[in-house]
Amino acid sequence: MMPCLYTFTISPFAEKARWALDYKGIHYYEKRLVPGSHSPIVRRIAPCTFVPVLRDARHVIQGSSAIIGYADARTPERQLTPADPAERQHALELERWLDCEFGEPVRRVFYSYALNHRDLVASLFNQGGPWWGRLFCRVGYPLIANRIRQMYAITAKNVAVDKDRDSWAVYRKKSASPRPEETARAGRAPALRSRPRSRQQPLRRQPHTRDRRSASAAS
User: pLDDT (tens digit, 9 = 90+) per residue, 78-89?
Assistant: First the structure.
């Protein structure tokens, strides 16, 4: 059974999962879901309703970080996460921090503006999505927009905090870890997950398929 990746079109976390699978050469097909209508589909296969979710013959893996772990376990070559325990712990901590301090705030700020433009959101949500997606967005947009605001805690207060935050100051206060440029000046490279893209080894994505009919049937 070829793995199936359930995603949103414009989710940074879904894109992180795609990068990991492409980099590892793991073939999969993608079901792009429409935010707001995705909950019953995802709930049938996973304990929570967020994406990305990867499903193969034996496993259901939810979350981009867990999918990276799955990819490393399935194809040990070119590990994305360091093997050294100390470096691994630091890399995972840094990834969690980036997800929380950059990924989530950027998403919240983006939607705070985008949700005021129905046509823009409908176009973004339905790139490669189910055939009924545009009709669903047209008819149920107020419900979709309210659901997204609830899911991502999009309030004027939260957005203001996100735009004003000094993320590096927050991170240094919590972990007392130096910035990457400081470690570079000290002659030590920070422990990061290996990058799928680099100038020395440019990434070309492995082809995968998107089963739109299956996505429609799953709904």
Answer: 899 999 999 999
Domain edges within the chain: 4-80+200-218, 85-185
The pair of three-digit structure tokens given for residue 148, joined into one six-digit string: 């997204």
Choose the CATH number for 4-80+200-218 among 3.40.50.620, 3.40.50.2000, 3.40.50.9100, 3.40.30.10: 3.40.30.10
Percent helix, strand, coil in the chain, to 5, is 55, 5, 40
**What pLDDT, in 10s, does the model give residues 111-162?**
999 999 999 988 888 888 788 888 888 888 998 899 889 989 999 999 999 9
pTM above 0.90, yes or no: no
Residue 138: count of CB within 10 angstroms of its CB? 11
